[in-house]
Amino acid sequence: MRNFLVPTSPHDLMPSVLTTAWLAAKRFDGYIEGFALRPALTEYIPFDMVGGLTWVRDEAADEETVAKSRQIFEGFMKDNQVPHADKAEGLTYGWRDKAPPGDDFVGSYARVFDATVLGRPGSDTVYPSMATLEAALFESGRPILIAPPSPPGSLGEIVVIAWNRSTETARATAFAMPFLRKARRVVVLEIEGGVVPGPSAEEMARALRRNGLPAEAMTVTPERRSHGEAVLAQAAALGADLLIKGAYTQSRLRQMIFGGQTSHILAEARLPVLMAH
């Protein structure tokens, strides 16, 4: 896992996103590429019902957003002594100039990266947005690495797999193997009542141990907590600095109405989360 994509925009969580990407790339001596993420706007918004006017897209504001995004990204890399890929090998960065606007580009371009690093979406902010996260999650065929609200101090030393026996979590675990191989401790965590039919946590831990990984199984009862709350509470108790999670074992619509592990973790996680669908 050596290629990380970072959609960049001027928002408050960008320092945590960049720190998370930097920690991941450092772990694998990898490459970080940024590009300016901005909304896809039509050239014209036709017709004001009151005045009959047509507004032209504000190209100057769009260019300012692109310039600010690049300044944030490259400034972070320079502050952390990460060289440009044209000048070095190993841990390096690059910038994709003239990236098309909109989330469709995120979903397609991410297909040639090992993971896309994004901020945890907030309900009261434009960025990071759930639309961007879902584009990368569902359209790229690759995992996403979600940064917590505050920059993490470490990444991948103690890894918890939120094991619910699902296809999605099996796929996320497979994508996470580079992290698991470098971890000091791997805990396959199962929440009682929060699983679908499939192999148990102990069976998954046993399979990981056959791959030479320091894996152990753990099953906890949710008590009066939701399954998502139980996962995050146990991850915090273990001192985990990376959570592996399959995304949307239940449908997105069902989770919007009734809640679910994915929805809760997306809303509340305080540690980096690697997700795949």
How are the elements arranged and paired?
Layout: E1 3-8, H1 14-28, E2 31-36, E3 44-45, E4 55-56, H2 59-79, E5 92-95, H3 103-109, E6 115-119, H4 130-139, E7 144-147, E8 158-162, H5 167-175, H6 177-182, E9 185-191, H7 201-210, E10 215-220, H8 227-237, E11 242-246, H9 252-258, H10 261-268, E12 273-276
Parallel strand pairs: 1-2, 1-6, 2-5, 6-7, 8-9, 8-11, 9-10, 11-12
Antiparallel strand pairs: 3-4, 7-12
Helix pairs in contact: 1-2, 3-4, 8-10
Please explain how this structure is put together:
There is one protein chain. The chain has 277 residues and is α/β, with parallel strands linked by helices. The protein folds into two domains: 3-147, Rossmann fold (3-Layer(aba) Sandwich); 158-276, Rossmann fold (3-Layer(aba) Sandwich), CATH 3.40.50. The protein has helices at residues 14-28, 59-79, 103-109, 130-139, 167-175, 177-182, 201-210, 227-237, 252-258, 261-268, and strands spanning 3-8, 31-36, 44-45, 55-56, 92-95, 115-119, 144-147, 158-162, 185-191, 215-220, 242-246, 273-276. The protein has a ten-stranded mixed beta sheet with strand order 5-2-1-6-7-12-11-8-9-10, sandwiched between helices. The protein has a two-stranded antiparallel sheet with strand order 3-4. Strand 9 (185-191), helix 7 and strand 10 (215-220) form a beta-alpha-beta unit. The relative contact order is 0.14.
